[in-house]
Amino acid sequence: MKKQIAILGSTGSIGTQALEVIEEHSDLYEVYCLTANNRVKELAMQARKFRPAAVVIANESHYEELKDMLDDMPDVKVYAGMRAIDEIVEAEPIDMVLTAMVGFAGLSPTIHAIKAHKKICLANKETLVVAGELICRLAAEYRSPIIPVDSEHSAIFQSIAGEGDNAIEKILLTASGGPFRNFTKDRLATVTQADALQHPTWDMGTKITIDSATMMNKGFEVIEAKWLFGVEPDKIQVLVHPQSIIHSAVQFCDGAVKAQLGVPDMRLPIQYAFSYPDRIHLRGDRLDLFKHPLEFFEPDMDKFRCLALAFEAIRKGGNMPCIVNAANEIVNKGFLDGRCGFLQMSDIIEATMQHVTFDSKPDYDTYVATDSEARRVAAELMG
């Protein structure tokens, strides 16, 4: 029987590549539900091609437009709103939920899917950044497996497969370094949105591409790795690896290091999350090590302050990572809209960390309140 998949954020980079995987393996997988935030036309086109049981548009103002577009497809139910996404992931036929929504918005539907005992294919890193302790506790309580989709965390997951209780000595988390790896700090002060969106290796969505340029994305991945693999941040080493061939590695207590290598192709970790523990054929390029030198550099924490702030946040714990995430969402959008400079982003995040109410033992309601307060503070600081 085909596995039924719900894709949250189907019109984004991860969502569209997941649909490519499903299309290649239509004998194994079937789309049960597709969701998007605002991209009505793309969602309607996907619905026509994959014929899911349901589609949800998060922005309720687009509901009538989407319903009209799919008026001749009565078998595809059309819903709108964030609450509808929370409810659809609980549908009984769904086997796994790919959480590819961007930002804090992915937290609530992920919690609902976990409580419905669904397998979580986690591509929304903010879920663990904001509420890692809560998510891990709920996943254990409801016996809902979480399989990482981020290329780095998938690489770590693949490297520890079969290792049982063997102790991890260190996680080696690789980073491309983004488009500004070789820029001086003075030069960073004048970079533009267009400059930041020119990622040298990966083709990703707008927000994550900016986060990669600031290296906040890597900071979030450090936090994510702590919760996924139970490793303290002092045992997570970030290595700048411009070729993005070694997607990450694990060093064990005997000094042995296991790594996952491959061409930069997000379909691989997406498919592995779907098929785990099995591996199935994937069309695409294969790695030729003769064509790729492998280089590694220390990240410059002074130049890329966002990475340092993420380490600071996870060491502080409590709701501090939630504060950082909310402030980052504000400045990321602010930079894209031309309302703050590249280096200002980390300044505003750091100031927000100092101003927002700290809570050492947050619950879900605390996270929601913190997110709201931090967004307001960051927006005020940005002016």
TrEMBL record:
Q: In which pathway does it act?
A: Isoprenoid biosynthesis; isopentenyl diphosphate biosynthesis via DXP pathway; isopentenyl diphosphate from 1-deoxy-D-xylulose 5-phosphate: step 1/6
Q: Which InterPro entries match?
A: DXP_reductoisomerase, DXP_reductoisomerase_C, DXP_reductoisomerase_N, DXPR_C, DXPR_C_sf, NAD(P)-bd_dom_sf
Q: Which residues form the 1-deoxy-D-xylulose 5-phosphate reductoisomerase C-terminal domain?
A: 146-229
Q: Identify the residues that bind Mn(2+).
A: D150, E152, E221
Q: Which residues bind 1-deoxy-D-xylulose 5-phosphate?
A: K125, S151, E152, S176, H199, S212, N217, K218, E221
Positions annotated to bind NADPH: T11, G12, S13, I14, N124, E126, G205
UniProt KW Cytoplasm keyword: no
Q: Name one Pfam family in it.
A: DXP_reductoisom
Catalysed reaction equations from the record:
2-C-methyl-D-erythritol 4-phosphate + NADP(+) = 1-deoxy-D-xylulose 5-phosphate + NADPH + H(+)
Name the coenzymes or cofactors required.
Answer: Mg(2+); Mn(2+)
Residue stretches in coiled coil = none
Give the GO molecular function terms. Answer: 1-deoxy-D-xylulose-5-phosphate reductoisomerase activity
Occurrences of domain 1-deoxy-D-xylulose 5-phosphate reductoisomerase N-terminal (ranges):
5-132
The UniProt similarity line reads: Belongs to the DXR family.
State the name under which the record lists this protein: 1-deoxy-D-xylulose 5-phosphate reductoisomerase
Query: Which organism was this protein described from?
Result: Xylanibacter caecicola
